Amino acid sequence: MSRKKTRIARLNAKEDFNKEQQGRILPWDLQSVLQIRQDIKSWTSALNAALADEPKTWMYQNLLSQVANDALLTSQIENRKQQLFTSDFRLVNKNGDEDEAQTELLAASGLYRDITNAILDAKYYWYSVLEFFYDADKNLKCHTLPRTNIVPQTGTFYRNYSEENSPVKYRELPEFGTWILEFTGEQPGLLNKVAPHVLMKRFAQSCWSELCEIYGIPPRVMKTNTRDKDMLSRAKTMMQQMGAAAWFIIDNNESFDWAQGVQTKGEVYNELIRLCNNEISMVISGAIISQDTTNGNRSKDEAAQEMLWQLVQSDMKQVEQLWNQSVIPALQKIGFLKGELRFAYDETEDIEQLFRFTTGLMPYKEVDNQWLEDTFGVKVTGDKATGGNLLTGTDFFV
How do residues 312-349 score in pLDDT, each as one tens digit? Predict the structure, then answer.
């Protein structure tokens, strides 16, 4: 595609985006983001700018967006989120009964997942600002406003964060609390604790890849008369045609010696990557879950899963609180939900432990068959016949 056609395509995409933004309370401008190499220095500078007296959060949020691309970090966050999303929820009326119609309406609309995801992301990214709107089919939708355009300390929204023009105090708008909701986590966010480990992990991977290149394809050296342009050009062509390995040309009168470095196969990089992975897992999941396959065992993994489940339960309590305090009142004012409602997750039970208690109780007490079927999913048809009862004195042999 030519540059002119590419430019026209970008202009059309921007025009379509601006049309989509019409009618929104807080529209923003599309901006390109340069994927530059991030390091500890850039993380420190971005964090200082976000926590300054006159804060600017766009550099910090752009850095967190790159940090969140780490594969292990993505896996750990998704493990924690999906355990919550796979749990059943319900809307309860003032009588304590489930309102099945409105529960199904909320689940089918997609609002539950979008809103809950914004609540959970506030824990990782520091804050989330949500805006409700109606789409072309008159369906109520929501989206999370770009965090780069928001400064939570001052409650300011910028249409263009790089130019910081047209600032809007969104907390002073009449739509705040109804069409605009804000969720804030602990400053400056959970991802801030894993950011240095992710950056150091990328550094170790980069160094390890260079080591693999050196050991796998050693560089080539060619000596020639570098003052002769024809000979130098011929030598350059020859080296290029021999492969993609690193190469260099020196003069006949020059010498090159290899420095004697530490002989290693990358163990130091492997240990650094392992350390960073463990730290990431500890921050997000509270334990190292199925990462160390050499020294791992079942008991350690079960204990780690129990720790992760405790964090998921804590997330559930926070989601329930924010839904009842902020989200449901807003949806009632908009008219999406009606009546006095309360959001709640279904109570979860440790089925394995409950089964042990039940089997230990059955020799002494009668257990309801229907409860066994509902709880454990086992079809129970009746009691198993026995040949006799030695305790009551009946004959064992007929």
Answer: 999 999 999 999 999 999 999 999 999 999 999 987 65
Q: Give the CA count within 13 Å in the CB-facing half-sphere of 132.
A: 25
CA contacts within 13 A on the Cβ side of 45: 8
Helices (H), the chain: 3-21, 40-50, 58-67, 71-85, 100-109, 111-125, 191-216, 229-241, 267-285, 298-322, 328-334, 351-361, 369-376
Question: What are 192-230's pLDDT values in tens digits?
Answer: 999 999 999 999 888 888 777 666 666 777 788 888 888
For 183, phi then psi, to 5°, come to: -125, 130
CA angle at 363 for the pair 360 and 367, rounded to the nearest 5°:
85
Residue type, 313: Q
Which pair of structure tokens corresponds to residue 205? 């991977």
Place of tokens 């390890």: 208
Q: Where are the domains of the chain?
A: 14-193, 351-385
